[in-house]
């Protein structure tokens, strides 16, 4: 809706801003309340809350300080970026259990300095073969014993070490085992997540035993242990070391660890638990799982090579399509506070989502017109739908080259129901991200996830593991006619999409973020900050950003789009966006996403890392 009165718009802006600050104080999250009242300078040398972290020999920026230090510890022991990544992933299972773990899913984008090639790992599991979503409620698909997908990340850890690593599984997960056995001071955001999931945990004795010690929500700073998880980690290490002692190769010994998890006694324990609890997982669900190395999606953008995760990620394709759409505008000539800039980015975001929500699904089951969606010709056609002066509304799906081969064409054009009268609920994600560069120049960007907080919320027997709740609406479609409706044996889509940027074959930037629906949008904006505006990495991360949300959802043409923008933006920018017809709401300062990034200075060749103050992220280097 257009508002012509500048006084009214300013009043609305001020009212929303005061309300948000008050709410921040009330909920005890006002660490940035003072800063939010005074917009920071947007120049490239602006003051930031955190310094850029240099690393002559290696850098790790991760979603928790202990996870970052675990990765750095491995680098200092002579491991490479892949070895350090598995250390970070295993430690995140202990210190950020609501967001990631061996029972979760995720994507990795890896730049191999020796070959100059970029590789993508898809470590995502499928829904159990016995699933019939039509017999279950949305709540049952979201949490509990009927929800969840096969653990993908543990197989991913092993595959990473087998193909590109140099160290043993025992070496790289040793820090995580120590934290799980001996404990660590639990961080406040984990405590809040446990408190929010208490009712669910109390339904399952196995969950209560882990997350409600002595029947209570732990206090921030309390020593928190996960002995059952340590036991599971020790079992896979035992399988590896036993194989090595019997003369097996390093690769085969790692495979023994994977086999014990997916085919051996650990899998037996998981199946037994679900059979007794009335769940759906069977031995064949675990036995058939394999992580896969795929060719990343790739585009050229203003001379840069941008790489990200292919389907079953929808986020990688989204980010690249957004960049192709705005490549037709001279963004660097614009003022970053100009409402036109934000408007163009927002219009590109919604155009890309209209396509990815129709075409992206499990690539082993469906044809996806990737080359058509990423072509210059298609970007030029879709760009014509952008009106620089006016928000255009959520568009219909387009017709990229090859679209007629996709089953989505028939499904969406003929079978999808019209917009429902009632709004559907929002389904937030619970994800983390990290980036690593080693002394040899290898780079990893990774985004693992449990889906929703603690995934299914069910600790599986005595394993200490919780599964990603990938059957939930968000990773799946609520509409039975849709290609992404939850189906047995199908891999749900994720927005996770870590990005690596090269120029002339040399590394420039690695980044990733959590944030559910906002992941691709957040990465897009930070890429613009760095590649178009030349901002240093920490400034690019901390700059205010926005996210689009759809009602009822992004599956439906004509959905109502709401823009939430962090409240450090200027009144002029806020007013200008509303004048262009955007439905704009203020979000609390430092509340959207959590980018972890590494940037190489192209003039000097030096490398620095940034960590997002929006969460408990931390960057370290040596």
What do you see in this structure?
The strands form four sheets. Strands 2, 3, 4, 7, 10, 11, 12 and 20 form an eight-stranded antiparallel beta sheet that branches. The chain has a domain at 53-293 and 429-451. It is an alpha+beta fold. The protein is globular. α3 (65-76) packs antiparallel against α4. The chain has 23 helices and 20 strands.
Key traits:
622 residues, alpha+beta, 8-stranded antiparallel sheet, 7-stranded antiparallel sheet, 20 strands, 38% helix
Determine the number of helices (DSSP H or I, runs of at least 4 residues).
Answer: 23
Largest sheet: 8 strands, antiparallel
Structural class computed from helices and strand pairing: alpha+beta
Mean pLDDT: 90
Topology (SSEs and partners):
Elements (H helix, E strand, L loop, with lengths): L5 H21 L6 H4 L16 E2 L4 E4 L2 H12 L4 H15 L9 E8 L4 E7 L14 H5 L10 H12 L4 H4 L1 H9 L1 E2 L2 H9 L1 H4 L3 H7 L11 E2 L2 H19 L4 H13 L2 H13 L5 H5 L4 E3 L2 E5 L2 E5 L6 H12 L12 H21 L10 H4 L2 H8 L23 H9 L14 E2 L2 E4 L5 E9 L47 E5 L2 E7 L6 H13 L5 H6 L3 E6 L8 E7 L4 H9 L3 E5 L8 E5 L6 E5 L6 E4 L1
Parallel strand pairs: 16-17
Antiparallel strand pairs: 1-19, 2-11, 2-20, 3-4, 3-12, 4-7, 5-6, 8-9, 9-13, 10-12, 11-12, 13-14, 14-18, 15-16, 18-19
Helix pairs in contact: 1-23, 3-4, 4-6, 4-8, 6-13, 8-12, 12-13, 16-17, 16-19, 16-21, 17-23
């Amino acid at each position: 809706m257009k508002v012509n009165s500048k006084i009214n718009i300013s009043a609305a802006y001020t009212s929303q801003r005061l309300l948000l600050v008050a709410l921040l104080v009330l909920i005890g999250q006002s660490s940035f309340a003072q800063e939010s009242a005074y917009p920071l300078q947007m120049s490239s040398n602006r003051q930031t809350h955190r310094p850029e972290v240099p690393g002559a020999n290696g850098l790790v920026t991760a979603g928790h300080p202990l996870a970052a230090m675990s990765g750095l510890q491995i680098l200092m022991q002579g491991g490479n970026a892949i070895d350090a990544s598995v250390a970070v992933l295993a430690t995140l299972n202990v210190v950020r259990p609501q967001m990631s773990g061996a029972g979760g899913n995720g994507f990795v984008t890896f730049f191999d300095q020796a070959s100059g090639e970029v590789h993508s790992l898809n470590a995502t599991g499928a829904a159990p073969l016995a699933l019939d979503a039509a017999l279950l409620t949305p709540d049952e698909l979201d949490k509990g014993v009927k929800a969840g997908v096969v653990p993908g990340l543990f197989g991913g850890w092993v595959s990473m070490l087998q193909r590109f690593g140099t160290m043993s599984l025992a070496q790289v997960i040793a820090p995580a085992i120590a934290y799980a056995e001996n404990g660590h001071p639990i961080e406040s955001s984990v405590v809040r997540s446990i408190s929010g999931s208490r009712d669910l945990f109390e339904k399952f004795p196995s969950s209560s035993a882990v997350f409600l010690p002595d029947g209570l929500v732990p206090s921030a700073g309390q020593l928190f242990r996960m002995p059952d998880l340590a036991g599971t980690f020790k079992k896979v290490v035992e399988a590896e070391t036993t194989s090595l002692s019997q003369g097996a190769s390093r690769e085969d010994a790692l495979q023994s660890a994977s086999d014990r998890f997916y085919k051996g006694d650990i899998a037996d324990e998981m199946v037994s638990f679900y059979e007794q609890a009335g769940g759906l997982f069977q031995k064949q669900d675990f036995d058939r799982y394999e992580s896969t190395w795929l060719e990343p999606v790739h585009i050229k953008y203003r001379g840069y090579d941008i790489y990200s995760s292919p389907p079953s990620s929808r986020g990688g394709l989204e980010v690249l399509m957004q960049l192709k759409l705005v490549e037709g505008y001279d963004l660097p000539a614009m003022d970053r506070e100009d409402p036109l800039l934000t408007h163009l980015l927002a219009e590109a975001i919604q155009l890309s989502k209209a396509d990815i929500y129709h075409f992206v699904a499990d690539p082993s089951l469906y044809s996806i017109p990737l080359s058509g969606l990423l072509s210059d010709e298609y970007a030029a056609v879709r760009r014509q739908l952008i009106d620089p002066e006016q928000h255009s509304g959520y568009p219909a799906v387009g017709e990229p080259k090859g679209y007629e081969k996709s089953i989505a064409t028939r499904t969406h054009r003929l079978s999808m129901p019209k917009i429902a009268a009632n709004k559907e609920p929002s389904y937030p994600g619970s994800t983390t991200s990290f980036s690593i560069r080693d002394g040899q120049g290898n780079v990893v960007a990774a985004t693992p996830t449990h889906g929703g907080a603690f995934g299914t919320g069910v600790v599986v027997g005595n394993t200490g593991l919780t599964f990603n709740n990938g059957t939930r609406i968000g990773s799946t479609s609520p509409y039975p006619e849709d290609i992404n409706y939850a189906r047995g044996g199908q891999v749900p889509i994720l927005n996770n999409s870590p990005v690596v940027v090269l120029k002339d074959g040399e590394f420039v930037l690695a980044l990733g973020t959590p944030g559910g629906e906002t992941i691709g949008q957040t990465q897009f904006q930070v890429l613009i900050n760095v590649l178009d505006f030349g901002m240093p990495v920490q400034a690019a991360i901390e700059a205010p950003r926005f996210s689009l949300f759809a009602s009822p959802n992004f599956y439906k043409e004509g959905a109502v789009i709401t823009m939430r923008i962090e409240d450090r933006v200027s009144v002029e920018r806020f007013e200008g966006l509303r004048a262009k017809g955007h439905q704009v709401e203020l979000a609390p300062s430092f509340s959207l996403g959590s980018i972890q990034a590494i940037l190489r200075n192209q003039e000097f060749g030096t490398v620095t890392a940034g960590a997002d103050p929006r969460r408990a992220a931390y960057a370290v280097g040596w």
